[in-house]
């Protein structure tokens, strides 16, 4: 199956459709607000024509601060896990990013992978969307959703890194690092100081470990999976779940 073809795109779109109903539970912010007064500065022509006494609008210009969010999605995972689980989990992450964008929060998105062997650490972080770019599934399907972003591109970056000295890298890709030792998330969802230094991220950034961190499988309930992701990451600062499931 070739990347970028309709067949390839539709395979991921099928996963995304599974969470569409859940996405609709979230309120979308109204970006435009009006204040109508009986006495104002500018006429509301339709109201004037029908004789509505509220026929003048009192206009007040107020600059709105556009909220932003930086998201870092960790792709590295051990070979014990199936691509199906990786794709299903990443599709949910993509949908949560979509929720933020629909709420008027401009997102900057990175993917990362980190490996360790003995006392050496290798990692990369690649920006795939800035704050001003629209959320484009065709463009983001490979780096965010496809398992080969990690298993092909990530491994290739590791294989060609000139700064790794340990001979063990010649026969191994090392071990995943996130979730072990001090490279983890705090109880409030913020990345630890060590993780911030490793990937050059901030405590307010939304860092999302791989699906094994959450114990996810493709057959798991979407609602419980989303709740687990939001509760354990900085997504909780942006998305509030409905009281009723």
Overview in brief:
33% of the residues lie in helices and 16% in strands.
Give a written overview of the molecule.
The chain contains eight helices and eight strands. It has 245 residues and is α/β, with parallel strands linked by helices. 33% of the residues lie in helices and 16% in strands. Helix 1 packs across helix 4. The longest helix is centred in the middle third of the chain and has 20 residues. It has two domains: 194 residues, no CATH class; 32 residues, no CATH class. The strands form two sheets. Strands 4, 5, 6, 7 and 8 form a five-stranded mixed β-sheet that branches. Strands 1-3-2 form a three-stranded antiparallel β-sheet.
Tag the structure with descriptive keywords.
2 domains, 245 residues, alpha/beta
The structure class reads: alpha/beta
- Report the average pLDDT across residues: 81
Low-pLDDT segments, ≥5 res: none
Overall spatial form: elongated
Largest sheet entry: 5 strands, mixed
Q: What is the tally of helical segments?
A: 8
- When the domains are counted, the total is 2
Q: How much strand content do the residues show? A: 15-25%
What's the multimeric state? Answer: single chain
Question: Can you give the helix content as a percent range?
Answer: 25-40%
How far is the N terminus from the C terminus?
37 Å
> Could you tell me the number of beta strands?
8
Radius of gyration: 23 Å
Order of helices and strands: HHEEHEEHEEHHEHEH
